[in-house]
Amino acid sequence: MKQIITATFIAAMAVSPLAAQEAEEPSVSEGFSLMEEGAKQLLRGLMNDMEPVLDDMGEAMTQLGAEMGPAFTKLLSQIDDMRNYDAPEILPNGDIIMRRRDDAPIYDPDPETGEVDL
Question: Which of 30, 52, 64, 98 might form a disulfide with 26, Cβ 3.0–4.6 angstroms?
Fold first, then answer.
């Protein structure tokens, strides 16, 4: 009788850790969700660290646009259509030349309004 009780007790003890390990072992989907959550936390941390730098960059770009806007508008008013020009060339002294194509229509703006008849 002691042998039967001892064997039953040993069998019960051997089986119980196996059941506990199966219940605690994470599944593949849980592993992916943990990796996804870790990636989200990493990106949130990076965004929090980069936010002041991005704000400063936005202010600098706004200032650059305010300073360069009039000059860029003036340049675009002197160019009728970009398709009428060859690719820009950079000379050895650093000058940039945009040559007008030979087959481009004649550019003759109205001297009073500055508009071009197309």
Answer: 30
Q: Give me 107's structure tokens.
A: 């550019």
Mind listing the pLDDT tens digit for each residue in 46-90?
A: 888 888 888 888 888 888 888 888 888 887 777 777 788 888 999
Residues with Cβ within 8 Å of 77's Cβ and at least 6 positions away in sequence, in order, are: 114
- Residue the block writes with tokens 């990796």: 35
Copy the structure tokens of residue 96: 């940039």
Range of the domain at 45: 32-104
Which DSSP helix (H) or strand (E) runs through 73? helix 28-78
Judge whether 65 lies within some domain. Answer: yes
Distance CA 65, CA 60 (A): 9
SS3 (DSSP) at 106:
coil
Is residue 99 situated within a structural domain?
Answer: yes
